[in-house]
Design brief:
heterodimer, A: alpha/beta, Rossmann fold, four-stranded antiparallel beta sheet, 7 helices, 34% helix, 27% strand, globular, B: alpha+beta, six-stranded mixed beta sheet, 22 helices
Chain lengths: 226, 771
């Protein structure tokens, strides 16, 4: 698969709880092409957030391989400084992560947050205001995160992610704390921008309807090796 | 049965709320331990200082009361009194009472009196009520108990007579002399106590700040639990009442051992403190005095309550009186300005201390506001988002850690000032001792011996012995006559003959031209700084001294520094002393020159016909003089350093916990792809900026406090001033200490970041989402 952005092979992850080993992800394999979207569903504790953390290098698998933008991360090899730095560089420049909440630095205004993220990714921070305009929150640019609503905060988080021009967006229940109407608006913006700018998306969600909007669907509650 | 069940259910329901509230400490036992330790240590520190202060105050009062207006009997031949003397005087019908002061190796001074002998005082015109009290060791004990005290280092027996006793009533071998355990210290004793009390208040203030910071931290972490209880229908007032009870019980549990430890600390430090008091004011620290258990316990309970409920009280006050933030800043600036002016112009010690309090209040209020504003301004100026973020984070931290930061600033300033004062004193005192102890040997003239014969021998020897220098020192008292006052103030007389080169190296605070020549010619007098300040006399002015009815008027030719004593002193040429002057003691200062001290000692033995000579070399005298201050200053340094450690620990703990609440945002930097070492570097820079900035801000406050101690408080309290000196190396040491605290916070925080489970939900629940 030449245009694949992300390939996962035989990925497993377990946690230790007391004396017990709890498997969270077992022998998971899939690929995701550029510009494609994948929904991760499953009950609480099924490993959605863990998988997202593995896909951006915040956690390390027990077994398996992740190939991201042709860089191979093999769990069999020792987790050295070079690997950590490689993941950091990927997150800095190519992987945008959106959490359910607290995606913004509270001490910075919305505009400064977007600039900060863009500068960190090595992009021109001058475009930050445009991103706020595109997400319809330009009039809130000077406000701080605690001065705007939850929906507006998530829009600002999307602005931050798109300002870094990512190849892959990992969204962990990005609308979980929003009401239905706001949630729909934010998700609409997310899909629209993802399609327009051709980046891939992995979306963890409980919402079956939302999962159906993605091109691919992975139910972590019912699989063991795909 | 139903009634019992209902009662039981009600009881369970009542306990449900405290159980829910206390469950926080089940999850955070270290927080409870920290709060308990804070209360314990703060109580210990304050009880220690205040116990010593009250003990000193009681001793001063006791001394004044016990020895006021008394007189004693002494032998004409100057020999020490013995039991035979008591018998002779009683047989002659004189009402005398033995007064035995003993200083044990360990513990404070005791006074032994004979209650039977004291009875005859009761029949006199004046009732010496001071020793009619029970002999319970406060400080009086039965004379037998005093005499048999373990490890007596020093003892002095006096025979006191009532004031109505006339000299004619005494047998021929005795004379009357005023009895005084020490000179009249006037306001100096009170001033000394005021100094101690100020230190105690500062310790209390820092302790209260620390308690408050730890308590607030607990409240912040429990905010969600309170909100949940509120949603369950528990009123905020009810929660508040239980919290009040919780802090009260905790304070009660910790205050009692704290008071006990404080008294133990005071007992441990008592002997060194007593020596300082004795040396500075000639007032002993008597055993068994000081405040009761109740006062420190109640004060600390009140402090804990105010420190923990300050917010609640403040909110109620603010609800009634809304004042905008700039107005508060203006009030703080006014306080600061008023304090600075008052410290400069304050006419008495009370006003200078009030000024210090105002300046500290103003600085403590303004510092966090100023630093936060500066950080915002720096953020505004910066184009780089990362720098902007760092400065904004700094502003948040300063606001959230206001109390421990201000406590650290105060503690640093105090340590800096005390260190500068102590080091300056030590340096100055050493230099001063070098000048004073220019002679190699000091030989006291034994009571009843002829001093003139020795002087003649030395004068003859000097012409034949190369390098030999000597002078005779005559000490006594005179009354300083002030035209404006009815009673003259007693001053020490320090008379020299001849005015040898051994003293001519002294430095003066002010002097006329060729002062030593004027002194040698008997045409002038030198006075010490204490007398100059108290009587407002300087070089060129004329003073009048009264020696038992015979007066002497001389111009002041110089003012010399004189450290560590409260009394005024006049240095004269011994040849100018009038006939009625009664020497208290005489001695010789001798540098023997090439043949050494041997021939001198031999000649003195022969002339005086004594077996042993009371002789000391200059090193022994120097050791004695510096030893007392070393102990005093060790105590002062220990107290201030302990306060600093307390403040530093509080900031470390608060910084760590608050940073932990902020951990998610540092984790976010990692999520955004910032390499871990860079995130760690941001942490380090931020915490170093925080603690380093506070150290920098403590510097001007510390220098100002040094100036106040040296130039305002010391002259007002002790009568002598010190040169103002600064010690930049010590500044660097303190700066380094602050940076170590900052680094420690960063290291702890980095460990926190390394742990799994730093989740975004923690960001707001722990009140870490402030901006």
């Amino acid at each position: 698969m030449t245009d694949s952005l992300l390939a996962v092979r035989g990925l497993s992850k377990h946690f230790i709880s007391g004396n017990e080993t709890v498997p969270v992800i077992e022998k998971l394999s899939f690929t995701l092409g550029q510009g494609q979207s994948l929904a991760l569903t499953g009950r609480s504790g099924s490993g959605k957030s863990t998988l997202l953390n593995l896909l951006c290098g915040l956690e390390w698998p027990d077994t398996g391989t992740i190939v991201m933008q042709e860089q191979v991360f093999d769990a069999g090899r020792a987790r050295g400084r070079g690997t950590t730095e490689a993941w950091s560089a990927l997150r800095r420049q190519h992987i945008g992560v959106v959490f359910q909440e607290a995606n913004l630095m509270p001490a910075l205004s919305l505009l400064d947050n977007v600039r900060f993220r863009a500068r960190l990714a090595g992009r021109d921070p001058k475009n930050s205001e445009d991103w706020l305009t595109r997400l319809d929150i330009s009039e809130l640019a000077g406000r701080y995160p605690d001065q705007v609503s939850g929906g507006q905060r998530q829009r600002a988080a999307l602005a931050m992610v798109f300002a870094m021009e990512p190849a892959l967006i990992l969204a962990d229940e990005p609308t979980g704390s929003l009401d239905r109407h706001t949630s729909d608006e934010v998700i609409r913006e997310l899909f629209s921008l993802q399609v327009r700018y051709g980046c891939s998306l992995v979306l963890a969600t409980h919402d079956a309807e939302l999962a159906d909007s993605c091109q691919h669907h992975l139910d972590l509650g019912h699989l063991s090796g795909v | 049965m139903t009634g019992i069940r209902s009662l039981y259910q009600r009881f369970c329901r009542t306990l449900l709320l405290p159980w829910a509230l206390l469950s926080h400490y089940r999850r955070h036992p270290w927080q409870l331990a920290a709060l308990a330790v804070m209360i314990l240590v703060a109580t210990m520190l304050w009880t220690g200082v205040s116990h010593l202060t009250s003990q000193a105050r009681a001793s001063l009062d006791q001394s004044e009361q016990a020895v006021a207006e008394r007189q004693q009997v002494v032998r004409h031949d100057g020999q020490a009194l013995r039991t035979d003397d008591f018998v002779s005087l009683r047989l002659a019908g004189v009402c005398v009472m033995p007064w035995l002061e003993v200083t044990p190796e360990a513990g404070n001074r005791l006074i032994g009196i004979d209650p039977l002998a004291a009875r005859c005082f009761g029949d006199g015109a004046e009732a010496p009520g001071s020793w009619e009290q029970p002999l319970d060791g406060r400080p009086f004990v039965d004379i037998h108990a005093a005499a048999t005290t373990d490890g007596i280092r020093e003892s002095q027996l006096s025979l006191l007579v009532s004031d109505t006793t006339r000299a004619e009533a005494l047998p021929p071998a005795y004379q009357l002399r005023r009895f005084s355990a020490g000179p009249d210290t006037g306001e100096l004793g009170d001033s000394f106590l005021l100094n101690l009390e100020a230190l105690g208040i500062l310790v209390l203030l820092i302790a209260a700040l620390l308690l408050r910071s730890v308590y607030l931290l607990g409240l912040t972490q429990r905010r969600n639990s309170f909100a949940l209880l509120h949603r369950f229908g528990v009123s905020p007032d009810r929660v508040q009442r239980w919290l009040m009870l919780e802090t009260f019980v905790l304070a009660l549990i910790c205050v009692v051992p704290g008071v006990w430890l404080g008294r133990w600390l005071a007992a441990g430090l008592g002997s060194g403190f007593g020596e300082a008091l004795d040396n500075l004011f000639d007032i002993p620290l008597y055993a068994g005095q000081g405040q009761s258990w109740l006062t420190p316990a109640l004060v600390m309970l009140a402090v804990v309550k105010v420190a923990s409920l300050g917010d609640w009280l403040w909110l109620r006050f603010r609800q009634r009186l809304f004042v905008p933030a700039p107005v508060w800043a203006g009030v703080a600036a006014m306080l600061l300005l008023a304090g600075l002016v008052l410290a400069w112009l304050g006419p008495s010690l009370f006003w200078v201390f009030a000024a210090v309090a105002l300046v500290f209040a103003g600085v403590g209020w303004l510092t966090p506001v100023a630093v936060a504003r500066l950080a915002h301004w720096q953020a505004f100026r910066s184009e780089a988002p990362l720098v902007r973020w760092r400065y904004r984070e700094l502003a948040v931290l300063v606001r959230r850690l206001t109390l421990p930061l201000v406590a650290l600033q105060f503690a640093l300033a105090m340590v800096l000032a005390v260190q500068a004062l102590v080091t300056t004193f030590e340096d100055t005192f050493d230099h001063w001792l070098e000048q004073r102890l220019a002679a190699a040997y000091y030989i006291d003239v034994p009571a009843g011996s002829d001093s003139d014969e020795v002087a003649n021998w030395l004068a003859g020897q000097q012409t034949e012995t190369p390098g030999m220098e000597w002078h005779r020192v005559v000490r006594g008292h005179a009354d300083f006559v002030d035209a404006g006052k009815a009673d003259g103030q007693q001053v020490d007389v320090y008379a020299l003959a001849p005015v040898s080169s051994l003293v001519r190296g002294w430095e003066f605070l002010e002097a006329t031209a060729r002062p030593w020549e004027h002194l040698a010619a008997g045409e002038g007098a030198l006075i010490n700084e204490q007398l100059a300040r108290r009587e407002e006399v300087g070089a060129g002015r004329t003073i009048q001294l009264d020696f038992g009815g015979q007066s002497l008027t001389l111009p002041v030719v110089g003012v010399y520094p004189d450290y560590g004593r409260p009394v005024g002193e006049v240095l004269l040429n011994a040849d100018s002393l009038p006939d009625q002057f009664t020497p208290r003691s005489e001695s010789y200062a001798i540098t023997p020159g090439v043949p050494g001290i041997g021939p001198v000692v031999e000649a003195f033995h022969q002339i005086w016909g004594v077996q042993s000579l009371p002789m000391r070399d200059s090193d022994t005298v120097r050791e004695l003089a510096t030893g007392v201050f070393d102990q005093t200053f060790a105590l002062t340094r220990a107290m201030t350093l302990l306060t600093l450690v307390l403040a530093a620990s509080s900031l470390l703990m608060m910084g760590w916990v608050f940073f932990s609440a902020r951990a998610w945002y540092f984790r976010l930097l990692e999520v955004w792809g910032m390499p871990k070492p860079q995130v760690a570097a941001q942490l380090v820079r931020l915490s170093l900026m925080l603690t380093g900035g506070i150290a920098v801000l403590a510097l001007p406050l510390g220098i100002w406090l040094t100036w106040v101690l040296v130039h305002r408080i010391n002259p007002l309290a002790f009568g002598w001033s010190l040169p103002m000196a600064v010690y930049p190396v010590f500044w660097l040491e303190l700066g380094l200490l602050s940076l170590i605290i900052g680094l420690s916070i960063a290291v702890l925080m980095r460990r926190q970041l390394g742990r799994p489970g730093v989740a975004p939900v923690s960001a707001n629940t722990l009140a870490g989402g402030e901006r």
